[in-house]
Every structure is written in C-alpha cells, then in structure tokens.
Design goal:
The chain is mainly α and about 375 residues long. The chain has 12 helices and 2 strands. About 80% of the residues lie in helices and about 5% in strands. Strands 1-2 form a two-stranded antiparallel ribbon. α2 packs across α3, α6 runs antiparallel to α7 and α10 packs across α11. The protein is globular, with a radius of gyration of 29 Å. The relative contact order is 0.07.
C-alpha cells in the first residue's frame, strides 16, 4: 500500500510538472505570436497587479466581483487618461513653439574665461534636435490609430485580469512545490512593492512636480508654462536626474542668449522647487509601502529597460532588477542566515587557524595510546 501511495504521489508530481512545462511552452509560442502587443499586455499585467487591492476594496464595500472589477478598471482608465492626455495635447498644440524655439537658438556661443573668448559651434546640435523633434512628431501622428487600438486592448485586458485575478494566481502557484512557495510569495511581495513605487509613488510625485512647476514657470513669464510643467511632471519618472533634464537646458538657453538673471532664477528656483522639493515632500510619506530599491539600481533598471525594451522597459526594467535583488537576498539568507559580511570574513579567517591544532591533536592521540600500551 505504501509503494502504491508513493507511486501515486510521484505520478501526481510528474503530471504537475508536465502540465507546467506545457504551459511554459505554449506561453512562449503565444508570446511570439503576440509580440507586437506584448508591451501592452505587460503594461496591463503590471497595472492590474497594482489595482487588485482597489478591486477588493470595492468588493468589501458591497459590489460584486464583476462590478468591482469594472470600477477598478475605470479607476485605472481614468488615471491613465489623466496622465497621458495633457502630454499629448501639450505636444500637439506646442510643437510649433518648440520647433521655433530650437530654430531661434544661436548657431554659435561665445564663452569668456581667463581673459579669453572661446567660440562653440552649436549648429549641428541644433539641426539634430530639430530633426529629432520633427521626426518624433511625424511618427507619433502616424502611430495614433495603432495607439488607439492598443489602448482599447489595454482596457479590455485590465478588466479581464482584475475579474479573473484569483484564478490566474492559483494557476501560477499550482506547479510550485509547497516547500518553495515561500520564495514565490517573497518575490510576489517584492513585485507588488516595486510596482507600487513605480506607479503610485511616481504618479504622486509627478503631480506634486506639476503643482510646483506651473506657478513657477507662470511667475517667471514663460508663455508655455503649462507645457513646461507637464514636461517636468513626465520627467519625474526618470530616476535621479528627473526634471533637472528640463530645467538645466532652459537655464543654458538663457545663458546663450545673454539673459543671465533669468538663467540664475530658473536654475536656482527650478532645481529647488521642481527637481528637489517634490521628492522630499512626497516620497518619504509614501515610501513605506515601496520596495526600497536603491536609486542607483532603479536607474540601472530604468535605462537598461528603456534602451532594450522601449517604453515598456521603464516599468519592466526596474521590476526585473528588484526581483533579482530579492532572489539574491533570499539566497544569502538561506546560506548565511543572519550573519553579516564581517562575521563571515572573521569566521573564514578563524577556521584555518583552528585546523592545525585539530590535526596536531589527532596525531598526538595515537602516540599517547601507544605509550600507555
């Protein structure tokens, strides 16, 4: 009977692994077929993961699973629309102003230092910037129909994932042996915290950046204050350097045209109020639920994901880095326990010193026994 039970258990495990392998193979094939919309699918997956608590909150308030999923989808749809629409509208209406500003830049800058004047040619940089802006605008206009279809796909996928999230979770965890499920749960927790940091924390910081940037640009007399504020809010998603990518070039533009007062005002107030204050005011209040990923690793994941995967890499890159760091931490805890690196080094230095004594004792014992005999 015991052999039969063990055989049935082994067969059950083997069947589980075969099914898991089948799912992986079919997933790879499906991913290849859906390659053109894979970024949209990954975005919907990550957003749904963040919105699951919102859907559960609606269910606890008396809504059904279906209506709760619909309400959470509307929340995600509204936030996505609120974030993307101002940027699209600003680019559409202000594109001509951006092109005119780039065209008005001097083709040569004069810099005085140590009693000498140096001329810096900027014509090639100016031409490259104009070509990039105009090419990006043309590509965006041609891609609008495709973007509209992908946005509709995103909303449909988001609703489906929220409605069947529990079933998807059960299917994902099913092939994992029970003794390894704590690892899966730890990785899932790090995933949730990282996505919270990318979406919730970044969006809140971007809103604060917009709230600080728009009054500043308006007070300083910029005609495109709204567009510049939106650009600063979007750049908040770029780790470490963020809105300074906008403030510094504008300040340098004022230096190039000889308006040193405006350059000093924008350089000082812009870096403090736009690039620094939102991080200090918002992040500490929301960071308790974030992954705590160091800024350097976040920047590595952001840039690597952006250059490798495109726009979706902004999310996937930091997420993969965070999950990798969690896996390394789990391995270190499994092997070394609570010991610090210093403790391990000291132990490694102490062990060789104790070996000769043990060897010497081992060789002395037979001699003493022989003497006793």
């Amino acid at each position: 009977m015991t052999d039969l039970a063990n055989g049935a258990t082994g067969s059950s495990h083997q069947r589980r692994y075969v099914l898991a392998g089948l799912v992986v193979v079919l997933g790879v094939v499906t991913g290849g077929i859906l390659l053109e919309v894979l970024g949209t699918i990954l975005l919907a997956l990550t957003v749904a993961y963040v919105l699951v608590p919102v859907q559960r909150w609606f269910v606890r308030r008396g809504l059904t699973e279906w209506t709760g999923a619909l309400a959470a989808t509307l929340v995600g749809f509204g936030v996505t629309l609120a974030v993307s629409t101002p940027l699209v509208v600003a680019l559409y209406f202000r594109l001509e102003d951006v092109v005119d500003t780039l065209a008005a830049l001097p083709r040569e800058l004069s810099v005085s230092a140590v009693g000498m004047t140096y001329a810096i040619e900027t014509g090639q940089i100016q031409a490259a910037a104009l070509e990039f802006v105009q090419g990006a605008a043309t590509s965006f206009a041609l891609a609008l129909p495709v973007l509209a279809i992908k946005f509709a796909l995103f909303v449909v996928l988001l609703f489906g994932l929220l409605l069947k999230g529990d079933a998807a979770g059960r299917a994902a965890i099913a092939p994992v042996p029970y003794e390894y499920r704590d690892v899966v749960y730890a990785l899932a927790r790090r995933t949730r915290e990282t996505l919270y940091a990318i979406y919730v924390l970044q969006v809140a910081t971007s809103i604060a950046t917009f709230a600080a940037a728009y009054p500043l640009f308006w007070v300083l007399g910029y005609e495109a204050a709204l567009t510049l504020a939106i650009a600063a809010a979007v750049l908040q998603f770029v780790p470490i350097i963020g809105p300074s990518m906008l403030v510094v070039p504008i300040a340098l533009y004022h230096v190039a045209v000889g308006d040193l007062v405006a350059a000093a005002l924008l350089g000082t107030l812009g870096l403090v109020l736009i690039a620094w204050l939102p991080d200090v005011a918002v992040r500490p209040r929301l960071a308790r639920r974030s992954a705590g990923l160091p800024g350097s690793l976040y920047f590595v994941g952001f840039t690597g994901g952006l250059f490798t995967l495109g726009a979706i890499g902004v999310v996937v890159g930091p997420l993969l880095v965070a999950v990798f760091v969690e896996a390394v931490d789990l391995l270190a805890d499994e092997v070394n326990g609570d010991a610090t690196f210093t403790d391990l080094v000291e132990d490694d230095h102490e062990d060789p010193a104790s070996d000769p004594d043990e060897t010497e004792t081992t060789f002395e014992e037979p001699d003493s026994k022989a003497a006793d005999d």
